[in-house]
User: Fold this.
Amino acid sequence: MCPGRFDEETIFGNVLDKPLKDIWHKSPNKARGAEDPHNLVNNRCPAKDGHAFPIGFYEKVMQRYQELTQK
Assistant:
């Protein structure tokens, strides 16, 4: 569950009904990490994407990171 939102899109389960491990394994956040290794450390934030975080924010951060690590 995302603490910033309370809609069906961001609530993946209830730990009172099933183990957190099961919720995590079926969550879209885990899938994002499998598809893109950069997302293993940051699974983005649907509540902030396009609002507090401007469109292209993650790509710009990764581009800058790559620039800095190549020096």
Summary: The helical segments are 20-25, 28-35, 57-69.
